[in-house]
Amino acid sequence: MQRHIKPNHTTSAAIELHAEVKGVGFPILCLHGHPGSAGCMSVFTEHLSQRFQTIAPDLRGYGNSRTRRDFHMQDHIHDLESLLDRYGVEQCLLLGWSLGGILALELALSNPQRFTGLILIASAARPRSNHPPVSWQDLLFTGICSILNRLRPGWQWNIETFGKRSLFRYLLQRHQPIAYQYIAQEAMGAYLKTSGPARRALSAALEAGYNRLPDLEQIQCPSLVLAGEADRHINRASSEETARHLGNCQWQCYPNTAHLFPWEVPEQVLRDIDQWLMAQ
């Protein structure tokens, strides 16, 4: 059955999102995943803002876009459209990581004339996961690793002793200091600032199911879909399936990486994005 984010009669008014804006030039709207924040997109924005204007918002209920009220996933779309209006953006590129990629698809489907290109990072129009059950040991080692990593980012002893035995083993394949430095600098704070309403909105959407594959033929703009070979959160197969259904799409999969592959192989990912952008 086809399921997607639908307007709801209880959908609330758009809120003013906190956003990090960098650079000048043609705009790129950069959308983070769950849990996440604008800062988690720095791996993209620090580089892309040298040639483009990057707009990276905290989605509703994340980071500094605070809310205490429950909301629906459709509210994210209204917020983002309002954000673009606030900055006077008539056309832009979309770049979305995980949940951000799903929202990028929704934006491209709702107003195709506004978006000139689509970059999906570890995302899919029909996302599927093969994440194993989480044990108490997983939670314990993840907590210890996160605390030590915050105190000493990228400490190899912590990575070997706790990181490889924690839930990070499902988010990463290359347990190298660079990825753990990003986790310390961006991910831990974003996790702590992710609100209950944001978690409930995502859970409700996942329980309802999500499938936009039949609608992807409506997206005519050039697309780039990037995936990690060992991604367990939104697996490689579902990302590749999305790429096949997009008409004008380039597909790239990175071996020995997982859901956080932009933090595992950032130079390679940015190089591939640059090459795609230059070809448009």
Main attributes?
single chain; 280 residues; alpha/beta; 7-stranded mixed β-sheet; 11 helices; 42% helix; globular; Alpha/beta hydrolase; AB_hydrolase_1; hydrolase
Structure described in brief:
This protein has 280 residues and is an alpha/beta fold. The chain has helices at 42-48, 73-86, 99-110, 136-151, 156-161, 168-171, 177-193, 196-208, 236-245, 261-264, 266-279, and strands spanning 19-22, 27-31, 53-57, 92-97, 115-121, 223-228, 249-254.
Set down the secondary structure blueprint.
Layout: E1 19-22, E2 27-31, H1 42-48, E3 53-57, H2 73-86, E4 92-97, H3 99-110, E5 115-121, H4 136-151, H5 156-161, H6 168-171, H7 177-193, H8 196-208, E6 223-228, H9 236-245, E7 249-254, H10 261-264, H11 266-279
Parallel strand pairs: 2-3, 2-4, 4-5, 5-6, 6-7
Antiparallel strand pairs: 1-3
Pattern of helices and strands: EEHEHEHEHHHHHEHEHH
Report the strand count: 7
Instruction: Give the CA-CA distance, first to last residue.
Output: 35 Å
Structural class designation: alpha/beta
**CATH class value of the largest domain:** Alpha Beta
Total tally of structural domains: 2
Number of helices: 11
